[in-house]
Write a structure and sequence with these properties.
about 180 residues; mainly alpha
Length: about 180
């Protein structure tokens, strides 16, 4: 269901530390087109948007926890190094670099998640605008059809009235001849 929006969240972080692994569900390429053609009520009933939102929020929470954990590790490492006589020599530069790279990757991952959320919101807005325009066109067509029916009814009434007047005229003419 995560692929119904055109992007599979399991493919966002491939080859990074935040790699989610393979998608446990089947990601059908036609799912996005099919989902986008559904009416808004059906989309809401399926709940895919809620599930995607929950998944993305979960990814953000995981990233935030990892960042917090790495910051704490760095803080502890720096505190330990301050307690030693040679703080500069005792800092493990490899660990600091590793933590910095991990933090940078997590920031990038979080940015990707927010971009995906923004994209989803924009898709929803565009779809809503298109649906409203379609609804307006439908209403205008129905109104026009109703007006055409009314005109047809009026023409029919006029025709019937003329026929009635003709019959009355013929009846009067026959009565006058008799």
């Amino acid at each position: 269901f995560h692929a119904a929006w055109g992007t599979d969240v399991y493919e966002l972080f491939v080859n990074t530390k935040a790699d989610l692994g393979p998608n446990p569900k089947v990601a059908d390429d036609g799912a996005h087109e099919e989902f986008m053609r559904l009416p808004p009520m059906e989309k809401e009933r399926l709940g895919y948007e809620r599930m995607l939102n929950a998944k993305l929020r979960d990814l953000v929470r995981q990233a935030d926890r990892t960042v917090a954990r790495n910051k704490e590790k760095l803080r502890q490492e720096l505190a330990r190094s301050k307690n030693q006589s040679d703080p500069i020599g005792s800092i493990d530069n490899e660990k600091v670099d590793k933590i910095a790279v991990t933090s940078a990757n997590l920031v990038l991952d979080e940015q990707n998640v927010w971009k995906l959320l923004d994209r989803l919101i924009e898709m929803d807005k565009g779809e809503a605008d298109a649906l409203q325009a379609k609804q307006r066109q439908k209403e205008e067509a129905e109104k026009k059809a109703e007006e055409e029916k009314e005109k047809e009814k009026e023409k029919e009434k006029e025709k019937e009235k003329k026929e009635e007047e003709t019959k009355e005229g013929e009846a009067k003419a026959e009565a006058a001849d008799a």
